[in-house]
């Protein structure tokens, strides 16, 4: 009778290799939680708190129609008899208005929620416009070069000599002079987006141009040229994905700057109209009553603006450090 020999035991190294080969590929969520970026995020308590605050502010602004106890845009529901009502914990407060009212009788809590949504909408739209314009011009200047590069960069150098607020005021005045038939309510959003976007495109253009000059001399770009791809295809399909890393950091930081600039323009009276108040408009309205004791009209919108800008800035600073290979 023949006895079959037992199979040879599998070594631990072989088991590990076999398991690695037969393991199913991880999904996007698994790769995200195993990444260095996630490790850096969860190791920073300040960044985690900033992310929670940002998400909370964004969510409350998006859900303003459901969270706000009143509609501050419904002029028929406003009553001047409710104007300048103090917060509920002060003498003379009304439980219907937790944070008090402004000079038109609008509930301040509702106005802050809706105003934050307006500020965020203008901020995101202007940053998107600036990014698209700056990335396009930066790619064109860095890849084509020559006279095109010279013209675009000289325009950028000239614009850098002007403060962003001055450029925004100039564009705002020019737009209102060219289109006098448009009402302020209809044109405010577009004028603000154009003004702030044209103030920020230079940073994207200079950053993308520098990265494009580096990428244009690499082997994969030369190979794309050899197989006959057009310049536009090479720029969009091959160069653009490799120069977007720094752009993400700039966009995060510029979002906070755009919100501040929108609030500044609204504070100066060239932003959104008083019938659709943003945070800057509420602060401007409250300034007229600050020294007469109605401090809540300015303080609460100012606190929301400061919290939003601080949280976004902290996230931008963390993202800049996390994506910097020299700090790893």
Automatic annotation (TrEMBL):
Presence of keyword Mitochondrion: no
One cellular component (GO) term of this entry: plasma membrane
Keyword Membrane: yes
Principal location: membrane
GO annotation (BP), single: transmembrane transport
Family, per entry: Belongs to the binding-protein-dependent transport system permease family.
Name of the molecule in the record: ABC transporter permease
Gene source species: Acuticoccus sediminis
